Give the backbone structure.
Amino acid sequence: MGRMSDQPARWTRATVYPDMWVDPDDDPRDRDGVGPDGELATLLEFLTDYRTTLRMKCEGLDAEQLARRSVPPSTMSLLGLVRHLAEVERDWRNWISDADPLPKLYGARDADFDGAVAEQAVVDAAYADLEREQATTDAALAAHSDLGERLGKDGTSVRELLVHRIEEYARHCGHADLLRECVDGRVGQ
């Protein structure tokens, strides 16, 4: 285990509030005015904000930094989180469909994290996979604006699916906070 002096110094880009990731004027999640009207619009805004937060936590890092693992025996890395969330987005489509399950993007269990290696091609593919899977899942759910509608073999409600998506991103954004701080010391909400 490294000594305290081996750890990166904690820092932030924010100057207005030192516990923030960026200043409010530079935060793409900060919107002027009141929040959205309605439950669906609110859920979608939270999902969008957590997706943006994940990308913000990864920005400015090279392939090695993105693939850097947390503490053993964990295989978690920022790149692994990007790949994992692409895999999860794909899996959620299985919840809303009566068709046969879609094949896994990365293969066997934990391959999303195990295959998160420090190669730029892997990083580029992970971001492309995440963007594609998010857009495809978003499009599939856009056809179902009634939050109480039940979908798929298990009758999962649209509301439950949206809340679960928010929960998944929020949980992993918490992991991303700690992973990023371990990589280069950057902290903030």
